[in-house]
Amino acid sequence: MTKSAAIVCDPDVMGGTPVFSGTRVPFQTLLDYLESGAPLEEFLEDFPSVPRELAIAAIQQAGDLVLAHARAA
Q: Rounded distance, CA 36 to CA 53, Å?
């Protein structure tokens, strides 16, 4: 996966909800799966339009944002 954004917000896609790049699958859906204890594989099976590499890149992107925010505080 290239260094492009894995999570994107576009007002023309799902009203600006953060989604996986190139899909209409909200990133929040992955977070909900993981929060409920479901493995990443279950999410990937249920949302085949999201490749494993994209899901992992999105998690990394979210982590990078959290860490950058924590450093700025």
A: 21
